[in-house]
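Dear colleagues,

As part of the handover before I leave the project, I'm documenting each prediction I ran so the next person doesn't have to rerun anything. This entry is a single chain, and its sequence is reproduced below.
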Amino acid sequence: MGELENSSILFKQITEIVTHARQKAYQNSNAILLEMYWQIGYLIVEDEQQ
């Protein structure tokens, strides 16, 4: 393979790693936000029922 092809493959692999890491970060932050909203809703309902 030529140097340009090697650079292209390397760039593609790096891009895939970064994209995958970003997707995991989005998923984790969404899960954390969902848990936060659930806890807030639970507190509101508990407060209203007492």
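Residues 20 and 39 are 29 Å apart (CA to CA). The radius of gyration is 22 Å.

All the best with the project,
I.
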